[in-house]
Amino acid sequence: MSASIFRHTISNAIKKNLVPGIVLQSFAVIIGLCYFYVPSCQPYFSLLATLKYDLGSVYAFFATALFGGLIPFIYLMTTKQFANREDFIKLFLFYFLFWGVKGVEVDLFYQLQGYWFGYQNDFMTIATKTSVDQFIYSALWAAPSIAIAYLWMEHGFSIKDTRLALNRTFLTLTLPATILSNWLVWIPAVSIVYLMPADLQIPLFNLVLCFWVLMLAVLNKKADTDVPASVLTEKTSNK
User: Relative to the CA of 54, which of 3, 129, 160, 229 has its CA 20 to 30 Å away?
Assistant: First the structure.
């Protein structure tokens, strides 16, 4: 595969995700500023923190299933992107269960980061957590696993077809573009997440995630290229 194709793919990833990334980062910053500097918002933050503290992983599952799965699913349903009833049921289960499980996974990862590095909001703690999050967890597991899961969904939940789609193009173009896109959006966003107290990290993650998945759904609907530039992996040209 030529270097020019790779450069074009990466360039397309940057162009496609730059503006949504700035919007989402601004959204996260606004929430952070409201928490630290707007006293009238404290009751809402306290309510979320209490729910997270009381329910733990159960909250992480259902909140992430709602914000990362159900709300984007409703968008896809209302924009008539389902071919038939069978697709409707399968996709509902996929979106809800997949993102619910991911929510528990992220919650456990945040707790592990807190155990390793503490919950201080000084520069070194935030930088360390963000680096481990984005350059180890996200790059090596989170982004690839989500990309493969969406590939499986887009191939009708066929393991055989998905295995065929996990080709050189996917490994050398799709995954690098996916990981870069995640960095553009999530490096600043998770820095804000890690500024928050432990029981508010998942609630803030869910709010950013909701807008992120919705934006990616809109972008991918409008995309006219075969190589994806986001974690919602589009079909490759040799499918």
Answer: 129
According to DSSP, residue 39 is labeled G
Q: Which of 153, 151, 176, 177 is nearest to 165 (CA)?
A: 151
Per residue in 156-178, is it b (16+ CB within 10 Å) or e — as a string? eeeeeebeebbeebbeebbbbbb
User: What does the buried/exposed string (b/e) look like for 55-91 if buried means 16 or more CB atoms within 10 Å of the residue's CB?
Assistant: eeeebbbbbbbbbbbbbbbeebeeeeebeeeeeeeeb
CA dist., res. 143 & res. 135, Å (int)? 11
Mind listing the pLDDT tens digit for each residue in 208-218?
Answer: 888 888 776 66
Residue 124, both tokens: 């070194």
Task: Indicate the DSSP class of residue 69.
Answer: I
Q: Which amino acid is at 86?
A: E
Could you tell me the pTM of the whole model?
0.83
d(CA 139, CA 175) in angstroms, rounded, equals 9
Cα dihedral across residues 72, 78, 81, 83: positive or negative: positive
* CA–CA distance, 153 with 58 (Å, rounded to integer): 25
